Amino acid sequence: MNKIFVPNAIATLTRLFYSSTTMNEYLAMRTAQFYIEDLKLLQDVEAVALAIENQNAFALMSKFKLFDYKAAEKIEIALSASGYTEADLNTMNIEI
Fold first, then answer.
1. Residues 49, 51: Cα–Cα separation, whole Å
2. pLDDT for 56-68, tens place per residue?
3. Chain centre to alpha carbon of residue 4
4. 60-67 vs 69-81: helix axis angle to the nearest 10?
5. Rounded to 10 degrees, what is the CA torsion of 42, 45, 47, 48?
6. CA 67 vs CA 2, 39, 80, 81, 83: distances in Å
7. pLDDT digits over 10-25, tens only?
8. Residue ranges of the domains in the chain?
9. How far is Cα 32 from Cα 20, in angstroms, rounded to an integer?
């Protein structure tokens, strides 16, 4: 996926999974599947990590692991390099 579209994809997935007005698990999972498998969202680890950090969308990591565990682990490592520990990421997941 083009780096320009990564922040929009992260925002869309966050809205679909966690907004009370659009919370539809089926639609969210199908959209995530399309973004990850067809558009290769997780291909650019650094761009995804930056978008997740900027939008505080750390809760999406558990969803990403369902589709591509290795890429999700690489994103977590990139986020850890940004100064976040695993405990910080877990705390932020609960707050979203």
1. 6
2. 999 999 999 999 9
3. 15
4. 140
5. 50
6. 19, 13, 21, 23, 25
7. 999 999 999 877 668 8
8. 6-95
9. 18
